[in-house]
Design brief:
- Keywords: Signal.
- It holds the Pfam family ALF.
- The protein has two domains: 1-119, no CATH class; 120-200, no CATH class.
- It contains eight helices and no strands.
- The protein has helices spanning 3-14, 55-67, 73-84, 87-115, 121-133, 136-163, 170-179, 184-198.
- α5 (121-133) runs antiparallel to α6 and α6 (136-163) runs parallel beside α8 (184-198).
- The relative contact order is 0.10.
- Mean pLDDT is 78; it is low at 3-44.
């Protein structure tokens, strides 16, 4: 990294997030090893002319994308290409290139889920639907909301199997019955923590 780029990267992380708004990443699921994902940032470039957004502002906006620890390989690759290019290259990255590079990273993340032996049937089914649709919106939608709902479906099946076991303790049965109608987070907590605390 050149000294100029390093200095700009430091400046970019210190600036107010007006140039690039980001949202928190989802927590990684320890059971399925699903990657943490970050929602696509809304980059307010479309509403600005080149005179309104200077070369320095464009560069800082691209550097903020690059500085995001959740940016994948494709996003980092295309951000670096934009930084090495012209003002038009940076604007093009922020307007369209980022979205396409994010879709490439999302596709890789979803393929890993499909190949993960710990992924349940619903997760694999919905992941394959997103891959078959193969639009940036479908891929991102699965990672942002579809995965959580599909995981909840798989978790309910797992809890139903626990309830089908006639040898489980009364306390575990009661906890499983309470959890099965809960939120996706409650389902996951029961499978990751609750059932182990209560034993079988």
């Amino acid at each position: 990294m050149t000294p100029t780029r390093a200095a700009l990267l430091v400046a970019a992380t210190a600036l107010a997030p007006a140039l690039l708004l980001t949202t928190p990443a989802f927590a990684t699921d320890s059971t399925t090893n699903a990657p943490a994902v970050t929602a696509r940032a809304d980059i307010p470039v479309d509403e600005m002319s080149e005179d309104e957004m200077s070369e320095e502002e464009l560069r800082i906006a691209v550097l903020r994308v690059l500085a995001d620890e959740d940016s994948g390989r494709a996003v980092a690759r295309e951000a670096n290409r934009a930084l090495d290019g012209t003002v038009e290259d940076m604007r093009g990255f922020l307007e369209t290139g980022y979205r396409l590079a994010q879709a490439e990273d999302d596709r890789v993340a979803i393929l890993r889920m499909v190949g993960d032996e710990n992924s349940g049937r619903a997760v694999v089914r919905e992941a394959n639907k997103a891959l078959d649709t193969n639009t940036p919106e479908a891929l991102r939608g699965f990672l942002e909301t579809g995965y959580r709902l599909a995981q909840a479906e798989d978790d309910r099946v797992a809890i139903a199997r626990i309830l089908a076991d006639p040898t489980i303790s009364d306390s575990l049965r009661a906890a499983a019955e309470a959890a099965i109608d809960g939120t996706p987070e409650e389902l996951r907590h029961f499978l990751e923590v609750g059932q182990h605390e209560l034993g079988s």
